[in-house]
Amino acid sequence: MTDAPAPPPPAPPATPEVDPSDSTPIGEYAALGDGHTAALVSRTGSVDWLCLPRFDAPACFAALLGKPEHGRWLLTVPDATDVTRRYLEGSFVLETTYRTPGGTAVVTDAMPSGDGRADMVRTVRCTSGTVHVHHEWIVRFLYGSAVPWVARTHDVDGVPAIRAVVGPDALVLRGSRLPHRDGLRHVDDIELSEGEHVELVLTWTRSWEPVPRALPITDRLDATRIRWAQWAAGTSYDGPYREAVVRSLLVLRMLSDVETGGIVAAPTTSLPEDFGGERNWDYRFCWLRDASLTLEALLEQGYRMEATAWRAWLLRAVAGDPKDLQIMYRVDGRRDMHERILDHLPGYAGSRPVRIGNAAVDQVQLDVLGEVMCALHLAREAGVTESKDTWALQCLLVDDLTRTWRHADRGIWEVRGPARHFTHSKIMAWAAVDRAVRAVEEFDLPGPVEHWREVREQIRADVLTHGWDAERGTFTQSYGGRGTDAALLQIVQVGFLDADDERFRGTVRAIREDLELSPGLLHRYRVEHADDGLRGGEHAFFACSFWLADALARMGELTEATAVLDRLTGLANDVGLLAEEYDAPGERMAGNFPQALSHLALVRAVHSHDLALRSAARQAALRAP
Q1: H or E segment at 442?
Q2: Which domain holds residue 559?
Q3: Which of 30, 96, 200, 386 has its CA 20 to 30 Å from the CA of residue 24?
Q4: Has residue 115 been placed in a domain?
């Protein structure tokens, strides 16, 4: 039996419109992942974003950035009066409970991992009374622009299936009850009584491959749940923020490709930093900076295997001439990520343009090697064995930096305005050379240490001369500027100054005066004081806010650090996820989601807080009579 091929959709308008109120709040999504890609599922059971088979592949469900007709997979109980959800046992197996006047249903969603498949599993079970379940399946390949050829078929075992094909991609839907075609979508309305259930499995394949055999759903869900929970149990932290730390570590693991070792910044593109504005970026790539910081967060929690995998990815990705070093790469290390605009998508809450690819790949950002070298040094300290090739690569990159650190750059925030001498960039260049020196001194690795020591002191003197505003008693965002930058909170993290140095304390005070818009919530910088080449503003940045908590803990201001951590961890959504930014007046998340930088900053801030608490307890014990 074959569905009639769907007619092509009408051409989209030149300027597509969307009602911003139709967009599901970013914080109402949960994430699923299989170690290669991730899906976003709304509180009401709509899979509005999924790229298969990898994070940076074109989306087959793209309603997140438009409307349902751009692709979604909805499994919901429409008349529910109460909806609650949770992840099972430290995993990414999501359980959503719908309560209605007539009964209760539980939907379980997961992307099974560990078996080499690209699948998503959804089950719905009535646990009491009778419930009405609505099922809607709208497949649109190529970010919602391509309507597939859809046909009913069977897998190799004769199990009925629906197969959607465009070009090289195919999606296969199987289950105990399949929807029927209704125009350009497939729908079903199901009445379930207590004990009855429906199982559904979505499988991605190459279009020329046969439909693969169905695998036991219950066994796959159990194995996936156990695999995640076992990994999460590896953290040694057992303090008051354990739940937030474990979930954040799981997010970082979910954003790490299990095959290549690449770590993406987020699984989404173009979720806005400014609702209705143009600050919309594709984060489905591996930034050396974000990945390095992720590695440090994992290492501090005892995860060494991930360090080895990422270091191997790094060696492959940046191999070659140091002058060709990019700030980001694709998951498999490829270097092509040309930025282009998808005009057919109206954007989240009308925020346009929708971008894929990222033009920042061509920027010079001098801080990047600092983060890389700090992470690799921490790996050495954790006992990860240095190889001849990995150290040779580091020497090559550091030697190149010793010749280029005086150049202007675009900085950690990737400004699209004029290049400047960013103070943070120079400090991170210092950190890169410092870690090279320490590698020789502490691990007896070969290198031109006298030259490196000389350059390290040159950079330090340059920062103290040109990046310091003596009148205000703070470091500035860029040489000769007056504004400050929350990235300067990392001064103490990399060891450029001690936490009790009055210059650092003065910088913390200035950052709070300039950038704190509500208790604990910081802007990255003031857009009105820095030409970043873009229109509009943005909201508080989660990572910077956690850096504040980290700095306060290192400074010994534990009461204030605890207050900031309490505020920030309390802003995570009901399943513990954080976006890039937080709109405090609107009480909503903004930016790509879930965001690795936010979650890694949480983990590291809690780590610093824990160390400070332990230190304070030891000092109190010594003072006791």
Answers
A1: helix 423-443
A2: 240-623
A3: 200
A4: yes
Q: What are phi and psi of 358, to 5 degrees?
A: -150, 115
The answer to the question of residue 228 being in a domain is no
Residue 82: both structure tokens together: 């109460």
Do 253 and 115 lie in one domain? The reply is no
Based on the domain organization, do 182 and 307 belong to the same domain? no
Which amino acid, 338?
Answer: H
Other CB atoms within a 10 A radius of the CB of residue 418 amount to: 10
Amino acid at 39: A
Neighbours of 129 (CB within 10 A): 15
Torsion of CA 480, 484, 490, 494, to 10 degrees: 20
CA 271 to CA 58: how far, in whole Å?
Answer: 16
Residues 175 and 315 in one domain: no
Query: Do both 196 and 273 map to the same domain?
Result: no
CB < 8 Å & 24+ apart, contacts of 533-536? 533/415, 533/416, 533/417, 533/418, 534/278, 534/279, 534/416, 534/417, 535/277, 535/278, 536/274, 536/277, 536/278, 536/279
Q: pLDDT tens across 407-421, in order?
A: 999 999 998 888 999
Say what percent of the chain tops pLDDT 70: 96
Same domain, 165 and 114: yes
Q: Which of 165, 185, 217 is the last residue of a domain?
A: 217
CATH code assigned at 414: 1.50.10.10
Phi-psi region of 429 (alpha: psi -120 to 50; beta: other; left: phi over 0): alpha
Whether residues 210 and 260 fall in one domain: no
Name 120's bridge partners. 202
157: which residues sit within 8 A by CB, 6+ positions away? 213, 214
Task: Work out the average pLDDT over 329-345.
Answer: 94
In a domain, 136, yes or no: yes
For residue 258, which amino acid is it?
A: V
Same domain (yes/no): 199, 254: no
DSSP state, residue 182? E
**Residue 463 and residue 373 share a domain:** yes
Residue 246: pLDDT over 60: yes
Angle, alpha carbons 618-241-114 (nearest 5°): 120
- The tokens describing 92, both together, are 């990414």
Q: CA 128: distance to chain centroid?
A: 37
DSSP for 298-357 reads HHHTT--HHHHHHHHHHHHHH-S-GGG--SEE-TTS------EE-TT---GGG----EES
d(CA 438, CA 432) in angstroms, rounded, equals: 10
Task: Assess contact for 127 and 105: CB atoms under 8 A.
Answer: yes
Start-to-end C-alpha separation, the chain = 86
Residues in the chain: 625
**Would you state the pLDDT for residue 15?**
42
What is the separation of C-alpha 274 from the centre of its chain, rounded to a whole number of angstroms?
A: 18
d(CA 127, CA 245): 32
Is 0.90 surpassed by the pTM of this model? yes
Burial class (CB in 10 A: 0-12, 13-18, 19+), 170: buried
Measure the CA–CA gap between 403 and 41, rounded to whole angstroms.
48
